[in-house]
Amino acid sequence: MRIVIGSDHIGYPLKEYLIPFLKGLGLEVKDCGTNSRARTDYPIYAKKVAAKIISGEYDRGILICGSGVGMSITANKNHGIRAVVCSEPYSAVVSRKHNNSNILCMGSRVVGEELAEMIVQEWLNVEYEGGRHQNRLDMIEKLEDKY
Q1: Is 98 in the active site?
Q2: Domains of the chain
């Protein structure tokens, strides 16, 4: 699996922590920045990560800011992106099973390193169930097509 990851300055330390963790799981990881704690704007990195998912270059993405909310809102503005904010593993699992989420957003001010590992691992290990859930995703896609 190929993972693309990005963060703003607030999420930078957690992003840097998670990259070796992801590589240790045998995943290919692309870092889209930011590359320091210098103040920056999260939409820049949400757009970069979303573009890599939309193009098919990467399978899933991870975005980290202070709360995860700004990254999620920005990423979800991109057609075909289903970004979810998670602060515990259960929502991560359900977002994959039922919503086929392709970007996981987390807040570095909300989750610590060990909890982030648990959330990421659960999210990575779950596959989309399809079936009755596909009709809902089709409805979401029609909304995206409308705009």
Answers
A1: yes
A2: 2-146 (3.40.1400.10)
Amino acid at 146: K
Catalytic residue among 9, 32, 79, 98: 98
Helix (H) or strand (E) holding 83: strand 83-85
Q: What is the DSSP string of 9-65?
A: TTTHHHHHHHHHHHHHTT-EEEE----SSS---HHHHHHHHHHHHHTTSSSEEEEEE
CA 91, CA 109: separation in Å to the nearest integer?
18
65 assigned to active site? yes
HSE-up (13 A, CA, CB side) for residue 97: 8
| pLDDT tens per residue across span 54-80 | 999 999 999 999 999 999 999 999 999
Mean pLDDT along residues 21-43: 98
Name which of 22-26, 73-77, 96-100, 140-144 the model is least confident about: 140-144
pTM above 0.85? yes
Among 9, 32, 65, 105, the active-site one is 65
CA–CA dist 25, 12 (Å, integer): 20
